[in-house]
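ingest -> validate -> predict -> emit
validate: passed (alphabet ok, no gaps, 197 aa)
predict: started
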Amino acid sequence: MMRTCADCGREIQSNESWEEGPKGPHHVKGSFQNLDPLSELAEKYGTDKGPSTHNYTPVYHTLLSSRREKVEKVLEIGIFRGNSLKMWSDYFPRAKIVGVDIDPKCAAIFTKAEWPRIEVIIGDAAHDPRVIRDIDIAIGRDVDLVVDDGSHLGEEIGKAFDAYFFMLRDGGLYVVEDVNLRRSASAMWVMWKHEFA
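emit:
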């Protein structure tokens, strides 16, 4: 009998662990085998970007694996518990990782001693000029990757894009996650920045 995961919308394979939930069957974190390195980190840290939820990490890995050692700056809007920042920090060994969230509790997630390359900024990344300035000071220009996993609202996505797309380096990647959410599926928009002289 074929079962479809209520979280990611994919068919649950016979070698994957699953359990029944209120919305239907869903993958159990850590039940996957033969994962790419980023997906392994996603499962390790429990971020929803991994195979057991949205399954974005194989796409990220395909797009970014050849540049892992070269990525120097990552900005993520909307960090929730900070699990994806930990994933990015392990995946990009040289990168400064800046996360932004409106929830003040997020400020206490990371210590400099444990996570020296991660910085968290609290505030509205789309509307607050102070936050936009603080992000610019923290990470500057020539950002390699911007991930918008914030409000998921069209107007907010547009304002954040206007504020941060110009910060990307030529060839940088801007991703908006969880676009057009449906009950059991989600999508991501991927935009490369290419400057023309």
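The helical segments are 37-45, 57-64, 83-91, 129-139, 154-164.
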